[in-house]
Records
---
Amino acid sequence: MKITANGISMNYTLDGPASAPVVTLSHSLATTLEMWQPQLKALTARWRVLSYDTRGHGGTDAPKAAYTLDQLADDAQALLRALGIPRTHWVGLSMGGMIGQTLALKAPELFASLTLCDTSSRIPPEAKPLWDERIHTAETKGMEPLVEGTLSRWFTGPFKERGGAVIESVRGMIRSTPPSGYIGCCQAISGLNLTDRIGAIKAPTLIIVGEDDQGTPVAASKVMNEKIHGSQLVILKSAAHLSNMEQPDAFTSALTGFLGKVS
């Protein structure tokens, strides 16, 4: 479905019991709301689930511009407002977790809980050349040259080699991401620097990370776990960056267990 929020047309789905508490799912860079497919059956059995495509991705508008995490958080807040959702459990993976942290600091009253998956509270300055290189590639050659390298970072070697439907679906999502949206979101992500502020987050918080995540390693999750008082940390074995897709059962079990306690 489409709705206008914060000046752009946003694509979203809303499923599950109409009277249940809302869970909002926010995807990673270069994917779409389809990334959450492995979790939907379990979540919609007990919760009202809002999935949406971030600015620059999927069926949501992809204006040519440098985006900021504040802007992406404003998009999410405007979407919730447009749909009449005053409070939500937030589940964000990678970029979605960065948006979640930003929004939780801006509008804490929106959050029943916060789940931060395979994400970080800071992009170190030494990583900036990597992001600049990805932006340059997307600008000059499009998404195709980024596909295989991204898959190698996002999944463990054995899982990627086995291939299968999960790898194919993610390959398709990366390939079809509008370069303007990818570039805009890369610029937003590369400015992430919230470590010194996230101690102010008071919502019940779960942190999930794949033990083999290269992009946002376990060390980054441990920092968030230390900073956010009372947060829980779950490390998933045999999973890299898209841990919800590589280890769907373990991920879903950790997530639903947490949501069941805090709902």
---
Amino acid sequence: MNDHAGNGDSKRAVLLVATIASFIFPFMASTVIIALPSLGKELSLDAVMSGWVATAYLLSSAALLVPFGRIADIYGRKKIFTYGIGIFTFSSLLSGLANSATMLIAWRVLQGVGGAMLAGTAVALLTTVFPANERGKVLGIIVAAAYLGLSLGPVLGGVLTQHLGWRSIFFIGALLGLLVLGVVLWKLKGEWTRAKGERFDFAGSVIYVLGLVALVYGFTLLKESSGMWLGVGLIVGGVIGLGAFVWWEMRVNSPVLDMSLFKNSRAFTLSNLAALINYSATYAVTFLMSFYLQYRPINPFDAQNAGLILVAMPAVQAIFSPLTGRLSDRIEPRLIASAGMVLNTVGLILFIFLDEGTSLKLIIGNLILIGFGFALFVSPNTNAIMSSAPKTAYGVASAMLATMRQVGMVLSMGIAMLMFALYMGRVQITPESYPFFLQSMKTSFIIFAILCFGGIFASLARGRVR
């Protein structure tokens, strides 16, 4: 099947699988975060190691999104999507059966590989079968699904952890994967390729993966005094590697990441930068608040109730994302997205003032504020990125956006884990270490607020998309 807009049946089927896939990917990331305290107790992990259970998934998916986006453009978007859901389902099952931290982290890496194949192709499939005038609407729907995944994650994760144990989270992930696989095999006929016959740039992909992994892994090592210099070395190596990747991509005939996307479109470049900053500044909010609510000395909450409180932020995102997506079909996306960044900055500044006795009303009110800011930002920003990319590069553009999201999430977690290590060292969070935890959390929020404030200007500077 070629790349023009699909018929009614194929459009509905693609929307269904892309929606479920967009739900599963963040759902798996956010359910695990709420389970970290009890998972950590069973496998006796310290705060830093617990962070790795979350980060392994984000890191492997971040590194592989762009190569898989390109492979999907060449060999078929549906094919890569199908393999991805198979790998994701299998590794979810194995994660649920893991009996050591090492095994769990290894299966989480594989889960991230499957996730990269899914997330790198879901938006591309949609953008392929829906015409430009319907794009904001359907992108709004899958952004809402992603936030529904993020919002149900803590609640379902809390309920499942409380009543069935943390392993049940991974078994639910495997069930959802089987559901998507069934719909794909039953309903999706034909194939979508746009760069068929072009060569895959294997060398460029290897340089990119190694550079990105070195950069992000180096960042996570900074928090250990023994590994600090290795961390600095890896970061420098990663930056050099990514520089070499850009140099290589500008010279090769069939690049994995077409640099002209960035060179020819300020909107594409700055919209991606704005996405990176936004996720770097906001993703760890749930991670930090999960620990804050479950360990605070005054009225601590169990996993289930902490999850119910944390749902406020992504629930608001899920409700308003389809509306802001539709709005961005009519109003210049940069204006709506920048307004969202402003609200996020305000919310992060307010969280700097959290202490042991902060009232629940204030916490929930602020989570709602950040959630609304996120809804204003994400759908319009996604629309801006996909609208400024040529048809031949939808897979890569979709993967680039998902990479910005994943790298932003990893950096956000990295900043939070770095603050843990600086203020607390490698200890489990206990009532004795709680004051140090509070300090590390406040410092994280100061850094996030500064980042988000800078992001407002990246968002405004992108210029007109249409």
